[in-house]
Amino acid sequence: MQIQLETKPFRGIETDALVSYVFEEKDPVQGRIAEVDQAAAGLIKKLAAGGELTGKSLEFTLIHAPAGLKAARLLLVGAGKREQFNSATVRKIAGAALRYLKGKSVKNFAFAVREGDATVDSAQAFAEGAITANFETDKYKTDKKDRKEIEIASLAGYSDAEPMAGEKGIAKGRTIAEAQNFTRELVNEPSNKLTPRLLAERAQAMANQSGLAVEILDEKKIAELKMGALLSVAQGGPEPPRMIVVTYSPANPKPGGPVIGLVGKAVTFDTGGISIKPADGMEKMKYDMAGGATMLGVMRALAALKPNVKVICVVPATENMPGGTAQKPGDIQTAMSGKTIEVLNTDAEGRLILADGVHYAKQLGATHLIDAATLTGAIVVALANVNVGVFGSDQAFTDKLLASAKVTGEKMWQMPIDDEYREFIKGSFADIQNIGSGKGGGAITGAMFIKEFTGDSPWIHLDIAGTAWSDDAKPWLAKGPTGVALRTLVHLVLSY
Ligand code: BES
Ligand code: ZN
Ligand code: ZN
Q: Which positions are catalytic?
């Protein structure tokens, strides 16, 4: 799909569909839409008067052969209340319009921003919305003859804007959205097509193409470095683990500046191990590597956007299998940090591999840590599939991330990590244990476990178990992998 700027005035744009938006207010036919309405002999006003066009969020009004326009169709999308309108709305309605038109076999469309909305941010949001909406999960379907394709998505309404605003926004949005789709592509892979070794190969290829430094630690190197927590999870099956390290170094780093460590859980399949999961729904555990895929996607975007801060990405990758060599409940493991862990439940494996991941990131020089993980079913109980669970040891750092989430339209909600919760993971026979003792607060317990390995570095944990995968399609996104948290993390790093 090509994304481009269209400089002609609305009436003269030759396209399969001219798309714009209306607000939910007394008279939704105003400004540029009123101008279009005049050309169309008052048809839009009539639809509004009849109650068919209200501006309610994601309401679609499709007009064929609109009078006074060169376009074959006019699509008006409801943008909701004007006061709540921002670039997140643009992203959503641009994506929803693309999927709506694609469903009708339309090949190209022009999205026209309204008066005053021709900003860099709108253009970025348009590109992000369109490119992420265009992503499909049909890679393994052999019969693609009914596949519909949008060929060109144009952005209009920028002729009076600062020159380059449109181009600049589109370029940035394209970089970020393509990175998000890269993440989603990885998350969509079934575990037989994406083992830890294959994930490492994909990371290596991405790093080489993007000009990032990459190092893949194999099982021998992982053992030499005494990453006992990661190894304990990997020992349950024949697939060897990998520790993936991708590094971005700015051209002129600030001496003494922060080094951001991004650590992502990549369990390419989580059976639960000996504490095995129920069969029903287990197939979804192919997305248990979404945290790792997210961090790799962030690196891909950063390589192009070139922030002035060093970023080290560490992705521990393994399967969690219940083979004859698997670890068993009660086994005691020694993490890379030297801490001993009593593994009371082999299904709480994400925190084990992250223990070695965050410790290694620190050893490599990270001063600020962020991990992303599909860590707990408990976060789904707490926040459903709406908000990412955010846990932070440093409020200023956490506030910075929450602000980035707001700007990029990703829903995140902070959870507590008071000292009282430390009790939950106090060990009986080892330093710590990997699950709590049945007192609830499962997502917090998982976070407290990871915190043990972060020392006094500012640290944020993102539990994306409820949000990395969507069981139903959204008007602006296919069902399946969402690529959540990538945009927030890219924005956060760029803010340094
Ligand atoms: N990968 C799961 C968490 C998960 C659950 C991800 C649902 C996506 C959707 C994780 O490894 C796990 O099994 N966690 C256990 C922890 C428990 C044993 C303390 C859980 O949440 O049940
Ligand atoms: Zn598990
Ligand atoms: Zn897991």
A: 277, 351
19 CB-near residues (< 8 Å, 6+ apart) = 75, 76, 77, 94, 97, 101, 109, 110, 111, 112
Q: Ligand 1: which residue has its CA nearest to atom 16?
A: 348
**pLDDT of amino acid 439:** 82
Write out the two tokens for 439: 């007192």
| Rg of the chain taking only CA atoms, in angstroms | 24
Q: Which ligand is nearest to the CA of 435?
A: 1
For residues 335 and 333, what is the distance between their CA atoms, to the nearest angstrom?
6
What is the C-alpha to C-alpha distance for residues 362 and 355, in angstroms, rounded to an integer?
A: 11
Distance of CA 376 from the midpoint of ligand 1 (Å):
4
Rounded percentage of the chain residues whose pLDDT exceeds 90: 96
Residue 438 binned pLDDT confidence (cut-offs 50, 70, 90): confident
Q: Which two tokens stand for residue 125?
A: 């949001």
Q: Which residues surround ligand 3, an ion (CB under 5 A)?
A: 267, 270, 288, 350
Ligand 1 close to Cβ of residue 350 (< 6 A): yes
Tell me the CA–centroid distance for residue 204 and ligand 2, in Å: 26
How many whole angstroms separate alpha carbon 71 and alpha carbon 53?
A: 20
Would you say the pTM of this structure is higher than 0.90?
Answer: yes
Q: Which ligand is nearest to the CA of 282?
A: 1
Distance 486 CA to ligand 1 centre (A): 21
Distance 396 CA to ligand 1 centre (A): 29
Other C-beta atoms closer than 10 Å to the C-beta of 173 total 29
Residues 6+ apart with CB under 8 A from 138: 144, 147
How far apart are the C-alpha atoms of 389 and 414, rounded to whole Å? 6
pLDDT tens for each residue of 110-157:
999 999 999 999 999 999 999 999 999 999 999 988 889 999 999 999
Task: Count CB neighbours of 242 within 10 A.
Answer: 29
From 271, 274, 375, give the residue whose CB has the most ligand 1 atoms within 8 Å, as the site to mutate: 375
